[in-house]
Structure of CbbQ/NirQ/NorQ/GpvN family protein:
Amino acid sequence: MTSEPLYHPQGDELALYEAAYAARLPVMVKGPTGCGKSRFVEHMAWRLGKPLITVACNEDMTASDLVGRYLLDSQGTRWVDGPLTQAARIGAICYLDEVVEARQDTTVVIHALTDHRRCLPIDKKAEVVQAHPDFQLVISYNPGYQSAMKDLKPSTKQRFVAFDFDYPLPDLEAQIVVSETGIDIATATQLVRIAGAARALKGHGLSEGVSTRLLVYAAQLMRQGVAPRDACRMAMVRPITDDLDIRQSLDHAIDAC
Ligand code: ADP
């Protein structure tokens, strides 16, 4: 990666991550969607000068999607490494985004990589890949989506050190919106105020608040000439709820700001 992924720290997470990387500890980044977890990991990989391999996890993902599989082509069968194996071989940071989406039997493949063994057994190839010294595993996790059906096994959780992320504090969030979009600070501050009103509804019919990502979207629409009222409705209300009452309250909050 050549250009720096811009990241505004919320606290001392840069130094703490550097310490975790120096000790090659597996890292878990927890927090609501769109609050800066992936950007943080991208920034840290850039800062440490390591390649980053990101995998967006989903419930259909199998262990083979991470580890690799035999493919059949005109030359016969050949083995193709999956992203996790590739990262372990070349010494990349492997980022499993929303790991809780993956089934537990898939997640178990990371176990031997995340303890003192630092290796990845590939059963189908009867090979054990010893991780490159620079390899590190990072996972993201949204505690809001947690349910008995979908959670990491305690034996998986206890292999990581964790960072707790949340939406940035208002002044910082406004700065982020400014630097991501080039919008003026007064408008960014107003967007953050609206987001605050929407986030207060969390638990009262809204399962997730308005993410920083959505504030950035609203500002980007405004930069394209969309009227603020419409941009806010499009980016900060319509995506997060279909409930008419809640939409109305949010629309009122926008009009009042
Ligand atoms: P997630 O927590 O879902 O991984 P992202 O890291 O993708 O969220 O963040 C969503 C967007 O919010 C980013 O693309 C970026 O525009 C913005 N953002 C959030 N936090 C920060 C931050 N601390 N510094 C810079 N940009 C941020």
In short: The first helix runs from residue 13 to 22. Strands lie at 27-30, 52-56, 68-73, 76-81, 93-97, 119-122, 127-130, 136-141, 161-164. The chain has a mean pLDDT of 93.
